[in-house]
Write a structure and sequence with these properties.
The protein has about 170 residues and is an alpha+beta fold.
């Protein structure tokens, strides 16, 4: 689970990393902890540090401009909050609105989260052909939205206010 947000030296969000990777970056003095979990600590023989929630790199990293978030099955499930687009129950699979057998592609606008039962029932038909209207319309998240959505819900809620404002502006 990617649960630690990485900020550039300029405080711009860069990515999310695993807790282990975040700790390694901090221990190698490549990053500093900007926000930690209030009650959790990492302890070892010669180590006692707060569990990082947000870290900031010490050196600025130049990142090429990314106009679009890369599509992934995990990204679709996170975007749709693991809710089936047909019935609203917990989703475990990704369904193509226009099936691949009819020329549908793996894109943000052609895929939705679905429970296995509805995915099987719809089969290789469009929602109209199957008589299964979509409860939500698929959309393409911005790269910043996709990165923020990859954080656990509790971690998103605990982010500092100034970071939420910056993510909304991105």
């Amino acid at each position: 689970m990617r649960d630690t947000l990485v900020l550039n030296a300029s405080f711009e969000p860069l990515s999310t990393v695993t807790l282990n990777r975040a700790v390694v970056l901090v221990l190698q003095d490549k990053a500093v902890v900007e926000q930690a979990h209030p009650e959790l600590r990492m302890r070892g023989a010669a180590l006692d540090m707060p569990v990082p929630r947000v870290i900031r790199l010490c050196r600025y990293v130049r990142v090429p401009f990314r106009r679009r978030a890369p599509w992934s099955r995990r990204g679709v499930l996170v975007r749709d909050q693991h809710r089936c687009a047909y019935c609203g129950r917990r989703a475990t699979t990704v369904d193509h609105v226009v099936p691949r057998s009819q020329g549908g592609q793996d894109t943000w606008l052609n895929t939705v989260a679905s429970c296995a039962e509805d995915n099987h029932r719809k089969a290789d038909r469009t929602p109209e052909q199957a008589g299964m209207p979509l409860l939500i319309q698929p959309f393409e998240p911005t790269p910043a939205d996709a990165m923020l959505a990859s954080l656990a819900t509790a971690d998103r809620a605990a982010l500092p206010e100034w970071l939420g404002e910056q993510m909304a502006a991105a």
